[in-house]
Amino acid sequence: MNKITRLAATGGVSVLIAAxxxxxxxxxxxxxxxxxxxxxxxALSVNLTNYAQGSEGTSATDAVYNDWNETVIDSPAVxxxxxxxxxxxxxxxxxxxxxxxETNPNWNAESNYHSIGWFATGNTKVVVDSPAVDAxxxxxxxxxxxxxxxxxxxxxxxxxxxxxxxxxxxEVENTTFxxxxxxxxxxxxxxxxxxxxxxxxxWDDSQYNVDTSGTSEPCTLPVPEKPAPVVTTNTVVxxxxxDAKTVTTTTTVTTTEYVLVENEWVLGEPSIVVTPxxxxxxxxxxxxxxxxxxxxxxxxxxxxVTPTDSTGSxxxxxxxxxxxxxxxxxxxIAGLGxxxxxxxxx
Length: 346
Prior knowledge:
This protein has 1 helix and 19 strands. It is mostly beta strands. The protein has a 5-stranded antiparallel β-sheet with strand order 1-2-5-6-14, with no helix packed on it. Strands 13-12-15-16 form a 4-stranded antiparallel β-sheet, with no helix packed on it. The chain has a 3-stranded antiparallel β-sheet with strand order 9-8-10, with no helix packed on it. A hairpin with a 2-residue loop joins strand 1 and strand 2.
């Protein structure tokens, strides 16, 4: 049986099928059947070397026959035979009137006593010596032949090594190979685990078969660059305090740092700093209130009828009216100023 050793490797798991096999108690060096299956976090590698040479099978072939028909003559054909004839000529004896037929048209001219006194009548006839014979066709029969030209052959079984690779339940390779098969399969997303199965079938001996499965170790996620913090500033200028002759400006700075959560930078809790700054109010913000100038009303003193003496001069009463009038005007001016100052503060 195959001896399988699993080795832990940086960035993945390596599965190595041992290069030494024991048969009948004797150790055999790995000059044949050396499979290796290696998984990293990013790819699966299959390396099969020194497998037995395979051979292709052959399909069965049909026999080739020559079909033909032989015509056998039972009796040969007989050609037609024309009739054999000759022409005879009629002669008549002058004295007796007897007639006779001769083949020689000049029979009466021959120098013999038989022809003396005969003359040709001019009549002729055709005498058939042998009748005509019609043609006779040959009598035959057909013998079919089914002659073997090329004999058929039986199918022969091929000898091939096979490898089947499955990743995450999907078959990605199913092929035959001769003595060597080397190929890598990219997992795609290298930051997640992937399952794999590699099945190798050696045609010459089942002890060289391989059936191994495993799970890849995900690659370490790279830490992305940390984004700059999000900073917002809000400045509010307060109302002037004209009693204290100051203005307070409040600046609020909100800083939100990014924090790493599952290898992803997300916004954390904001940090808020409030800074108040007080300065003197300007003349425009708190103008100086100057009481308005109030023109005192013109006071016409009442007409006082005073007795006169006999000379026309006013009589002296002993009282001076200048002081009361001045006091009344000052009181009016002070009241108007107080009223204006209170309205300005409000």
